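If you are new to this repository, start here. Below is one unmodified record pulled from the training split, so you can see the exact layout before writing a loader.
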Amino acid sequence: MADTTDMTKETARAASRGTHPAGAQDETHFRRMLDALPAAAYTCDRDGLLTYFNARAAELWGREPRLNDPGTRYGGALRIFAGDGTPLSHDNSWMARAIREQREFGGQEIVIGRADGSRVTVLAHASALRDEAGNVIGGVNVLVDIDARKRAQEIQDFLAQASVALAQVADYQSTLERIANLAVPFFADWFGVHVREAGGKVRRIAVRHLNPEREAEVEELYRAYPPTAGKPYGAVEVLLSGKPAFASDFDALLPKIARDERHLGMLRNLGLKSFLCVPLRSRGQILGTLTFATAESKRLYTELHLRAAEDLASRAAIAIENAQLIEALKVADKRKDEFLAMLAHELRNPLAPVRNAVHIMRATTPPSAEAQWAHDVIDRQVQQMSRLVDDLLDVSRIARGKIELRRERLAIATVVSNAIEASRPLIERGRHEFSLVVPPDALYVEADATRLSQIFSNLINNAVKYTDPGGRITVRIERGEGQAIVRVTDTGIGIPPDMLDSIFDMFVQVERAGDHSQGGLGIGLTLVKRLAELQGGNVEARSAGLGQGSEFAVRLPLATERDEASGERTGAYPVAKLDHSKILVVDDNKDAADSLAFLLRANGSDVRIAYDGLEAVGAAIAFEPDIVLLDIGLPKLYGYDAARRIRDARGDDVLLIAITGWGQEEDRRRAYDAGFDHHLTKPVQFDSLLRLIAKGRAS
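And here is the target side for that same chain:
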């Protein structure tokens, strides 16, 4: 801009010094010089009469003005008149001020009107015009056409805004809507999108105009004259050829495009001035076309606009590809979740009778040392498989924001102690030296007991896994500043310094020398981190390096202080004897139903079994059980529907517990909506089931 401004100033100064040369030869030379300028230049006298203009001025105005027309005096603003006496729409206030104040003026952008009604942006610089004695005899104005440069900058800004806007869309329809909103009114008065469907049919899927009411005109036009290959202009031509269509003066083409006089009239009623149509390509295929047209604005498209339209189409295609990829990822993610849920269901179902069978063997026959060992191995492996399935599903649920926390006031020491007890068999099997250090005063947190127990169980199991037999593991509970801190420290293999930042990432595991893995899926610590963060806390890993042991510190915000501890969860429901309880067991897995019924009968209950949903409803009405243990995925009548019918028949007199392989949050919600009191996932610990029944009967 500075270079152009300097050029206009120098040109104006040269003109102001040389308008009245000493001789005719010099004056001829002077006029030739001004005619050769790339800028428009003209002069007028003190009365506002136009005395000279160069060829570029006439070209810029779009009409040749006449000399010595009085026009409007410079007391307000000068107006230049055309040869036919009509005024050109150009405000010469810069010239008027330059003459009045006898100095240079301007050097700024102004918009001038041309004879055809279009407008052009120029950089103007006016200067007083003096004679040889230095007297002001008029003025000179120099106009540099910067319209192309201005339009180019505006188009670049428009494309930059388009990139930002298109980066925010997530589906195909939103992408096209965003393009339409961007194109009108800045780039076009009319905008349309066409796509090619199966069989080669062309379908218009969007049209936009400055005035939405006028869009109905296009609807009528397309109904009367749908796109056809017979007159392959515009969208059809571009779809067939893959090449853009461009018409700077569209009106001249209408007779060639129209199929008949009515069609021609409808096209002309749209008032189209200029036209662009570009292909929308994705991965080498032409998805459709983008059509731009001007009308009311009277703008004429140039090669610059064509390149901009192609650029916009390219950016739109990328946005559409991204939207399609996002949609594909959503579909894949949904299928993954469905697969994981089905996998969990199919794994949990056979695990349930295996665990029940172990309990039966222990309860019926005093086992030998070898049999006891075998029972323990089976039970540990069933528990390990159950934990892996739960962890895998939990990580998936957290990633999708599907975890629902059930917060309550908890004594942190109680939750840690429960987690230690759950891990006790692993600790004893590893012959580890284990210690728990608690503060003298109780620390309370507002958290989900089940998820909090998961955090500490995973950290303790992790310490056991990576500490050699005989090593030392310490769990220490401390009070921090507004926090309860639980540190799990071990003397195990430690963590390399370069892994401390990534140890909580999915599938990351520390390897021993010579070993590929310590087993597991590498998701336990990921689950710990995310569950801690969901409950307002965090977890941090520390290690001096390989062979130096490690420490994991979980920090949770302390609950608000209060005197009573009524909200403290102690898990104090004892293992109950179910003497004289009437229990209905429903499961289409015969081994699972029969083995659970055996255990309940051994515990003193009167038990009936049903293997499908309809049989379950009938048995519930005839048998009138106190407790129904009901599977969900039942034949003949789904478990949710069976539960509703049982609840309708028995009301609140029955305790309904879902025992199922379906363990997603959505499954739990549907279970409670259907009338279940509790939702358990297979395989269920028999002692835990008895405690839950005792709790349910006591409430």
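Two things worth knowing about this chain: Confidence is low (pLDDT under 50) at residues 16-23, 69-91, 513-521, 563-575. Residues 582-698 form a domain with the Rossmann fold fold (CATH 3.40.50.2300).
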